[in-house]
Structures are given as structure tokens and as C-alpha cells.
């Protein structure tokens, strides 16, 4: 092969290498803090967990209580937003099967708000047993709704919102267990 051919082959190999690195750079460039990695390896969606917790202010040096506060408040906000979505949707649903899903999920989401509020208050007071109890109650309610969404026909948008909330509650659940064992 000629020198020009070798240079072109080398240039194309280098180009492919850089394309690969640039294409998948987010996967390789995240330096996940050890505490976040410990938490996220126990969740059902590691990547979502890492993205969520590394977005917390000061995540690189955050302690467990700080990450718990961020996680619980993020979960609470998502639950409240989804609950408001269900409240607004409920009067407009005419299909009885969809109405059943919306009504059931609204009950579950309504039932998740007080425990999440109590989890946040208990965390601030250092009552980790109460934190765990309340997060698990919210987790059970949200998972109940999510199971029904998989069976019955959900209204447009609810499946995505529910999946997002389930992932957040999963993170909060793992953190609440970790709080008990620290």
C-alpha cells in the first residue's frame, strides 16, 4: 500500500475513533461520586438515578441527607404535578375503562402526597424510621397506580408521567433504606 493509502487509512481510523468518543462521550465523561454510585446501583434504572442525583446542587460532595432531601423534594414535586394532571383530566374522561384508571391513580397519587410531606419533615428532624415508613407508603401507592396503567387503557401522557414518578420514588426508597443503615 502506498504512503498516501496508509495515511488515509490512519486518518479514517482516527476519525472513526474520535466519532465514537464524541458520540458516546456522555457515557464516559461522567465522574459519578461514590455515594451516588452506591445509591444508584440499587435502583431499577441506574442511568436515570445518576442523572437525577448528579443534578442536585453540590452533588459531587453531597452527603446522604442532602441527597435524600433533594430526592424526596423532587419526588414530591413530580407526584404533585402528576396529581394535578389527574385532577384536571378526570372530569373530561368519558371512556369508563380510562375513567377507572384515572380515578384509581388519582386516589393513589392523592394518598402519596401526605407521606412524602411527612418524609421530608421527618428527614429534617432526623427521624429516619419515619422517613422510611412514609417513603414506602408513597412507593406502594405509586406502584399500585403504575401496575393499573400497564393493564387498563391509560389516558395520553399518564404512562410517561407515571414511569418518571416510579423512577423517582425508587431512588427515594433506596435512599430511605440507606438512611436507616448509616
Automatic annotation (TrEMBL):
Taxonomic source organism: Dipteronia sinensis
Annotated SUPFAM superfamilies: Plant invertase/pectin methylesterase inhibitor
Signal sequence bounds: 1-29
Record-level Gene Ontology MF annotations: pectinesterase inhibitor activity
Similarity remark: Belongs to the PMEI family.
Residue ranges that the Swiss-Prot or TrEMBL entry lists as coiled coil: none
Keyword annotations of the record: Disulfide bond, Signal
SMART domains linked: PMEI (SM00856)
Domain Pectinesterase inhibitor: 31-175
PANTHER family referenced in this protein's UniProt entry, alphabetically: PECTINESTERASE INHIBITOR 5-RELATED (PTHR36710:SF18), PECTINESTERASE INHIBITOR-LIKE (PTHR36710)
Protein name: Pectinesterase inhibitor domain-containing protein
Pfam families per the UniProt record, alphabetical: PMEI
Amino acid at each position: 500500500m502506498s504512503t498516501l493509502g496508509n495515511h488515509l487509512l490512519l486518518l479514517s481510523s482516527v476519525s472513526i475513533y474520535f466519532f465514537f468518543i464524541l458520540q458516546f462521550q456522555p457515557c464516559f465523561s461522567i465522574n459519578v461520586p461514590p455515594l451516588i454510585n452506591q445509591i444508584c446501583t440499587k435502583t431499577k434504572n441506574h442511568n436515570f438515578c445518576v442523572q437525577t442525583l448528579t443534578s442536585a446542587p453540590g452533588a459531587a460532595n453531597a452527603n446522604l441527607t442532602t441527597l435524600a432531601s433533594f430526592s424526596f423534594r423532587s419526588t414530591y414535586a413530580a407526584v404533585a404535578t402528576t396529581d394535578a394532571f389527574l385532577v384536571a383530566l378526570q372530569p373530561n374522561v368519558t371512556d369508563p375503562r380510562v375513567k377507572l384508571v384515572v380515578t384509581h391513580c388519582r386516589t393513589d397519587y392523592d394518598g402519596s402526597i401526605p407521606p412524602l410531606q411527612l418524609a421530608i419533615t421527618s428527614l429534617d428532624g432526623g427521624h429516619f424510621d419515619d422517613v422510611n415508613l412514609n417513603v414506602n407508603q408513597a412507593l406502594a401507592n405509586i406502584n399500585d397506580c403504575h401496575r393499573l396503567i400497564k393493564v387498563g387503557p391509560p389516558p395520553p401522557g399518564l404512562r410517561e408521567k407515571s414511569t418518571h414518578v416510579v423512577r423517582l420514588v425508587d431512588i427515594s426508597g433506596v435512599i430511605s433504606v440507606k438512611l436507616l443503615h448509616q
